Amino acid sequence: MKSKKILIGIVVVVVLFIIGLIGKNNNEAKMVIKNAEIAINEGNYEKARELLYTVVDGNNKKIDKLWNIVNSYQNAQTANLEAGLKYLDEIDNSYKKYNKLKEDVDNLREELLSTKKVREKFKLKIDEVKGLIDKGNYKEAMELSEETSEWQHIEQKDKNTMYDLHVQAMELYSEQVKEERKEEQKKQDEEEKIKNEQEEQSKKENQENNFSKEVAQKIIDKLNNDNGNSRNFYEITSDLKTDDNGKKYFDVVAKDKDWIKFDDHTVLANYKLYSNEDLVEVQN
């Protein structure tokens, strides 16, 4: 009987101890939750995380939710884009009652979604640049692939792809410009050649149309004055004639200018003088 009373006493003590321990743990948990919420409202998420880490064990739903909120948000801050969005989607909806945290979570989500949109548009731009290069629009491709402020949000592999396309477009555009300049110069040379030929033809036609004995005499006088050591002296001996090809000319003879002094007018050679000032010897 006595031992039974002792056993009952021990059980009572143990129960009271457990109840006291549970009460103590509950009080500690409540204090951690309170301090963690204060830290969350202040935006001090690392402090809140450290507080919650000491008591999180899966047995307190309130603590578990706070741990989920803080842990997921901090992970979202450091993770890559897709993982960050996934962490934010996993945050318990109770985060919305903490104004500071709600603002930070919403801002981070907006930032990540904006970055995602920029990256998606950048990939489309890569395809557009490739298309421009394929079509030979190298200058437009070069301009579209230039580095801009958006590049700070782009993954490195896509940056590298766009940079390579930019270099390719620059090189191809440089070659294109060289070829275009070469073609333009060729065109200008051909136009200049045609222009010169037309001017020369026009000059010949004018010479032909205006060819007269007076003009012919000026040509002969020039020949006689400029013939240097030559003893030839040229004289026009006919009126205007036309050869079998329709070209106008005058008959011209060459005499020895020294013989002429002695009244010797022997003809040394016969020529035809054309409007282009060509003096063509006539073979007898």
From TrEMBL:
Entry keyword annotation includes Transmembrane helix: yes
Region annotation (Disordered) ranges: 176-211
Keywords: Coiled coil, Membrane, Transmembrane, Transmembrane helix
Coiled-coil features, chain-numbered ranges: 91-118
TM region(s), chain numbering: 6-23
Top-level taxonomic group: Bacteria
Basic and acidic residues bias spans: 176-207
Name of the protein in question: Uncharacterized protein
Species of the source: Clostridium disporicum
